[in-house]
Write a structure and sequence with these properties.
- This protein is an all-alpha fold and 201 residues long.
- The chain contains 12 helices and no strands.
- α8 packs across α9.
- The protein is elongated and about 65 Å long.
């Protein structure tokens, strides 16, 4: 699957055929289709691996979703999406081409938004964030944070944006969140070492 991901990342998911992949692997098309009969099956296997890696990576945040942990764990999450950047860049084409996979991804999107909302709720309960000013405010915040993380690479590509993608993405998320922090939350936020530069992959 690693070679498939490399090809998809470099050429785009839609542009790569099963024959292209077989050639890259130096095997016959028949051998390849013995393992993955269709491109959709290969894509589903890759998607399963992404979700598994993501769940393992976020375990530490689920245990203690402190402000410092949240800030720290944004980077490996963005690095994960960058390793599989073709899916972030070609997500609309993939969902249109494979309705069954699109349905699976929609379920994952709901889970991801629910997870972000749970972190927000924890932050309110632990006194780091104010209670929402109006009903549904933090649900919408969770959805907006999800959009930033999910589509950050696509907007960078479209805008030909340079600079450190990890720090830019985290800054965008914190700029939405800072006005909602309590005094305690601001004190914890100010403990973050923003001089620690994380380099692009």
């Amino acid at each position: 699957m690693d070679i498939a991901v490399e090809l998809f990342n470099s050429k785009g998911f839609v542009s790569v055929t099963m024959r292209d992949l077989a050639n890259e692997l130096e095997m016959s098309l028949g051998n390849l289709t013995y393992h993955f009969k269709k491109k959709e099956e290969l894509m589903e296997a890759i998607h399963d691996r992404i979700i598994e890696e993501r769940n393992v990576m976020l375990d530490s945040v689920q245990m203690i979703p402190s402000i410092e942990n949240i800030h720290r764990q944004m980077v490996p999450l963005l690095q994960l999406y960058e390793r599989y950047r073709f899916l972030q860049l070609d997500i609309l084409e993939v969902s249109r081409a494979y309705p069954h996979l699109a349905e699976i991804m929609r379920g994952q999107f709901k889970n991801q938004i629910r997870y972000i909302k749970a972190i927000i709720d924890y932050s309110v309960g632990s006194g780091n964030m104010n209670a929402e000013a109006r009903m549904g405010q933090y649900q919408q915040l969770a959805e907006t944070v999800w959009m930033i993380i999910t589509f950050w690479l696509a907007q960078r590509e479209l805008r030909d944006q340079k600079g450190n993608l990890y720090n830019q993405a985290r800054s965008s998320i914190w700029n939405l969140t800072i006005p909602l922090l309590t005094e305690k939350g601001l004190a914890n936020f100010n403990k973050i070492d923003f001089n620690e530069e994380v380099q692009n992959a």
